[in-house]
What does this fold into?
Amino acid sequence: MKTSDYSDDTNGPEGLVKENLVKDVETLGNKLRLVRQAVGEVIFGQEQVVERTLITLLAGGHALLIGVPGLAKTRLVETLGTVFGLDDKRIQCTPDLMPADILGSEVLETDEAGRRSFRFIPGPVFCQLLMADEINRASPRTQSALLQAMQEQRVTVAGQAHGLPTPFHVLATQNPLEQEGTYPLPEAQLDRFFMEIDVDHPDLAAERQMLLETTGAEQKQPKAVMTPAELIAAQALVRRVPVGDKVVDAILSIVRSGRPEHSELEEVRNQVAWGPGPRASQALMLAVRAAAVMDGRYAPSIDDVVTLTPPVLRHRMALSFTARAEGVTLDDIIGRLLAPHR
It folds into this structure.
């Protein structure tokens, strides 16, 4: 969509709103280029991972980063906290980690007059950017402690609700499930993650650059580019980006086709145990809007939908036992869903 589509009638209120939207998108696009540049000085060879993580933050969501140890997942989260000026904290998930270790707890105190009262001590979840490192090493009970925080931005301890700071994002890292000592995340928690982002090994050129940059006497440190207030404003702007009917129809078609009870595809009916819910449609809509803003565009396209469907849907679907036994993968199914839109 061209800029002129928004500015050919700027005399009326609607034209003024469109003109302001164009200016806001251009300003934010320039700021995000600086953000990507700042992250790229520290994180090497993970452009797609960085882009999808930034899309998640712009959409106000949480991301699940999946990859083997040593691929700079932790470093990426720390860098984003610095670049956006967020109050960030880190949790190292282990099998003996308890919910109170994340949420906080109440302690009984006695004052000088001998009166006793409970005082709440906040846990590390009370921050703006929470990194849950190796989240699938925590027990299911501890994993579920994050459910309310991720969905409602508040936690309940001893019957008392405590609000979390704004913005609030969880960036969790996960080891591949075939590794020992891991617990698969429950479906309800997986659905709370905006995207599942696969982190692969960097290519030869990026790994060479990383080798030279990180083993010298001095290492580059990330610098702040945006503030939490600017991130909140950017998230509000993303929701103002218009979406064409064709893009909306494509999102609905893809998501609904992934549900065995609604799909016309025989592969989905026979090989998918359960498909994506309405939250997947909402996530995909916000993702394509954020992707458009990242590129300085004023509206998303079908190409954005095709590109972002896999990370949005992959963790919101499950294969049947028969399909897994036959070697079918979710990427195969998602590719079939996207075929009519390529």
